[in-house]
Design goal:
Layout lengths: L7 E2 L5 H6 L4 E2 L3 H4 L1 H13 L3 H20 L3 H11 L16 H13 L4
Parallel strand pairs: 1-2
Helix pairs in contact: 3-4
Length: 117
């Protein structure tokens, strides 16, 4: 019998650890930015129990996960990535502050290193 309350991960940069501790799902911002990597991480750790491969994927994503979690600019980062994917404009509404050129370049660099840009 399945439990009524599922354990869901809600902190981006604790994905791997949360899956190891039994999280059955992920309320994920990163899946908007790197959907294939997010799925590979979930499948590798939760479904296939391939912890070494999961750790490798997680470590490759960690800088972006931390940026989303702690920058205070997750919506702006998502908007920039969605714009690059051709889905929308990266213009954000007030009171959000747009990303500056340095932040945009950093995000692009991280995405290029992950082969998702």
């Amino acid at each position: 019998m399945r439990r009524q309350n599922q354990d869901l991960l809600r902190v981006e940069d604790l994905a791997y650890e949360s899956f190891l501790l039994g999280a059955e799902g992920w309320v994920s911002v990163i899946s908007n930015i790197m959907p294939r990597l997010a799925v590979r991480l979930f499948e590798g750790v939760v479904e296939k129990k391939n912890y070494d491969k999961g750790w490798e994927i997680y470590r490759s994503m960690l800088l972006m996960l931390e940026l989303l979690e702690y920058s205070g600019k997750a919506p702006q980062i998502v908007e920039q990535r969605l714009e690059r994917m051709g889905f929308c404009s990266s213009v954000v509404r007030a009171p959000r502050i747009p990303l500056n050129d340095e932040e945009r370049k950093k995000i692009d660099r991280l995405l290029k290193e992950l082969n998702v840009l």
